[in-house]
From TrEMBL:
Residues 48-405 form the Leucine-binding protein domain. Residues 28-48 are annotated as: Disordered. The lineage of its organism: Bacteria, Bacillati, Actinomycetota, Actinomycetes, Kitasatosporales. It holds the Pfam family Peripla_BP_6. It comes from the Bacteria. PANTHER family: BLR6548 PROTEIN. SUPFAM superfamilies: Periplasmic binding protein-like I. This is Amino acid ABC transporter substrate-binding protein. Keywords: Signal. Transmembrane segments: none annotated. The keyword tRNA processing does not apply. Belongs to the leucine-binding protein family. InterPro entries: Leu-bd, Peripla_BP_I.
Length: 430
């Protein structure tokens, strides 16, 4: 992969991490305006219910980087159709690859919303969600999308997989400012006794900006923070690894891409830097760890990941077992697949609530805006949407945690509904 393309991946991974810090337990939401029109209905009873999935499948980040949620959602709908669909009506899935561009995204929105007349979008995963305002104006519920940008904290009728407390009045967050909690840092401080953390970034704007946010959060939780910045064109990861070893870092956070993470881990192994946790994000919560980190066995077994959904390897849980059984034909498994599966389940529950009135955009949207926390049969931490006029100063937030072990794969660390903390909410700009 070229340096230019890895720069895009770095920016995306950093943004995912930033938004991920805001995930956790949520508050209930008030209803939207009940006077709105009923919207576009599906066709006569017995005909398929049409949904759309927009994915940046061929984005500059590289093939397969964003396809997990789509694959998980499609697997859910395939199983649902095999069991008779919704009241005998099958789900017809229309997919669209926006190519990772704003122009392509607008074209996908036009095709699915205006031409195909989908009832809802599901598991949207777009590098540039340029068509988000158009989806909102059309009052099409967008259910369970990945918050790669700020769209789900900006527009009504858009319901990302992690929820939002923002007014969603056309501006991101509160007057352009978003807020995220420090629960991840609190977890490692309380549960793992960590006191010193290293933050590794490139000397590149997106990477450096995210590293500054992580540093702020760590310092707010009382950590000693060691910052390591490497050259984007010719990164000397060995020097960074040697310094974080010298400084006695317990944790390593990063604002770098997957390739850089693998190189950093190799350098840590080479210099003998042992840490409590090398912390990564939900996008890297995959079964490909042995291949991605094949040259760093010690660091590989210090990988930890945090998120807001149940570990996709937690097969003791019934809902996870069903997901894994339905996706056993896939070459790899990931947390994003599980979250796509949960998004499809969310739509299905919304559509089932419309049995009496008919499955329309407005009916599905009323279910989404009802204020009831949603967990997808325990796959998600409770997700709600609420339009708070002011951002909360503190919030009780929960976190799902797992660590990699070569013999077991991703092993859950405690119950995600119990890893909960009252933490400050820090401001940042999208």
């Amino acid at each position: 992969m070229s340096r230019r393309l890895r720069a895009v991946e770095c920016a995306v991974a950093g943004l995912l991490l930033v938004l991920g810090t805001a995930c956790g337990s949520r508050l209930p939401e008030s209803d939207f305006d009940s006077r709105r029109p009923e919207g576009t209905p599906t066709r006569q009873s017995g005909e398929p219910i049409r949904v759309g999935i927009i994915t940046s499948a061929t984005s500059p980040v590289g093939g397969g980087a964003f396809t997990g949620p789509r694959d998980g959602a499609k697997a859910y709908f395939e199983r649902l159709n095999a069991r008779g669909g919704i009241d005998g009506r099958r789900i017809e899935v229309r997919t669209c690859d926006d190519g990772g561009s704003g122009v392509g995204n607008n074209e996908c929105v036009h095709q699915l919303v205006d031409e195909d007349k989908v009832v809802a979008l599901v598991a949207t995963t777009a590098l540039d969600y340029a068509g988000a305002s158009r989806v909102s104006r059309a009052r099409v519920p967008d259910i369970g999308g990945q918050p790669i940008g700020a769209a789900y904290d900006t527009y009504l009728h858009l319901y990302g997989i992690y929820g939002s407390l923002a007014p969603r009045d056309g501006k991101p967050g509160w007057d352009g400012t978003l807020y995220g909690g420090t629960e991840v840092y609190r977890y490692f401080k309380r549960e793992q006794g960590a006191r010193t953390a290293a933050v590794v970034s490139y000397n590149q704007s997106a990477s450096a900006a995210y590293a500054r946010l992580v540093t702020r959060g760590l310092r707010a939780e009382g950590y000693k923070v060691v910052t390591e910045q490497v050259d984007f064109s010719l990164p000397n990861f060995r020097a960074a690894a040697a310094d974080l070893k010298e400084q006695g870092a317990d944790l390593v956070f990063d604002a770098i891409d997957t390739y850089g993470n693998a190189q950093l881990c190799k350098a840590m192994d080479d210099v003998g830097a042992e840490v409590t946790a090398k912390v990564t994000n939900v996008q890297n919560w995959t079964s490909t760890v042995p291949e991605d980190y094949k040259d760093a066995p010690r660091c590989r077994n210090a990988l930890w990941v945090t998120g807001s959904s149940r570990n996709h390897e937690d097969t003791d849980h019934e809902a996870v077992r069903e997901f894994r059984d339905a996706t056993k034909g896939l070459k790899t498994h990931s947390q994003w697949q599980l979250e796509g599966w949960a998004a499809a389940m969310w739509f299905t529950d919304a559509a089932k609530s419309c049995a009496r009135t008919g499955v329309t955009r407005a009916c599905v949207d009323r279910f989404m805006a009802s204020g009831k926390p949603y967990t997808a049969d325990g796959l998600l931490l409770p997700v709600t949407y609420d339009r708070l006029p002011e951002p909360p100063k503190t919030r009780r937030t929960c976190v799902s945690v797992a660590r990699w072990e070569d013999a077991e794969g991703w092993v859950s660390q405690g119950a995600m509904n119990s890893n909960c903390f009252d933490v400050p909410q820090l401001a940042y700009e999208p």
